[in-house]
Amino acid sequence: MNNKPEADTGQASDSLPAKIHITLTVNGAVKQMEVAPWTTLLDALRENLGLTGTKKGCDHGQCGACTVLVNGRRINSCLTLAVMQDGAEVTTIEGLAEGVMLHPLQQAFIEHDAFQCGYCTPGQICSAAGLIRLCRAKSPEDIPEMMSGNICRCGAYPNIVAAIKQAMWPEDREVEQ
Amino acid sequence: MNLFTYTRAEDVEGALREIAGNGGGRFIAGGTNLIDLMKENVERPSRIIDITRLPLRKVQPGDDGGLRLGALVTNTDVEYNTEVERRYPLLSKAILAGASPQLRNMATVGGNLMQRARCHYFYDTATPCNKREPGTSCSARAGINRSHAILGASGHCIAVNPSDMSVALAALGAVVLVAGPDGERAIDCSDFHRLPGDTPHIDTNLGADEIITAVDLPAKGFARHYAYIKIRDRASYSFALVSVAAALEMDGDTILEARLALGGVAHKPWRDPGAEALLHGKSATPENFQPVAEALLRDAKGFGQNNFKIELAKRAIVRALGRAAAGEEHP
CB B28 to CB A127 under 8 A? Predict the structure, then answer.
């Protein structure tokens, strides 16, 4: 780390605490940036990198709209400081598709109409991607509890669960049809 | 959020150096509680000391056959740890009952122990609150207090500790290991959190210049007979109105040892060894459970909106003991 704070705020100072240089690997690309100590990862993604797919909902970790994957795990990007994530690998909704090939979750959300307004959708999909990586859901009945950190004010929950189920157990799809 | 400076500690010694004599400094680990409180201007640190790089991320064998959880192990890594699931399923279940998957991926063992009250007035800087601003008053006593304490409250504060993890740790008799300028010490989980008394702004017995390094689980994990029941307003992702951690050691139908810890009812996880002892040597029947529930809630007092919690807690205790005795949670 290369940022010793210039001034201790214990003393009166008319200058802001210094910005800090950090490196994030976002959706596979190495990104360098200068952030204030109080910049959240969410704000760094949206404001510094222009990745506005990650949404700011409640900004208090209650709604899940800001969910991204950090080092493969889903977190609320509104409740962590960007500087704390220096060196981390971040995956946002923009990084899930492979070129023009949508991620299976994205495709499933479209097929199941798993949204109305769509504001919670990037967080829902990133959260579901984290859920799939966790490999702990044993049956579709586990999905609601394991997606409890993502709120949908439109109430598209049945379709969201159906979409996640399809992405998690694609082999079951043939049986249903 | 106020402006602050940021420093990153690389080891425990460095973290202790950074916090020493620094009244306005705060350690940050998962950040899920601290950053939220900073956004509400409840916490206004002048300096943030990032401890996420400290080497405290291991779950390893502890002394005397127990298990040691590093302070920075995430809640997720505890709940899904194979040793915890096998030997301390009560702890795994309690952690799973708390927060959301995203928050549990961030939150740490040490941070969970340090999380602050969720009282509406503590969060609302426009209202008096002795926990936020000592000497003002407690707005909850005559205000919105549906989620507040029924045990151990004081005239100064009726907030409750919101943790699920800490309730299980209290029942298991875990020990918190801390480091400070004078070396290391161990604090029994039952003594880690405080009752509010006339200093409700102090949540725990951790010194301002100390840091949590680990939590030790004793060898006995009560893996066969346990239950964690959490009663809340939603099916998931909600703080407890009442929670009960029950752990029994049984010989056939006879209870050899009983542990009970309550969450959502006091400023700390609530245990009453005297009430637990009523079960020793008794058979596991609802008739024997009810007097224990009555004894645990003997001094309970409601503040209006939360009066219902007293009966709710009693029924939850009886139900938890029944489940634990039956070994229903055992896979």
Answer: no
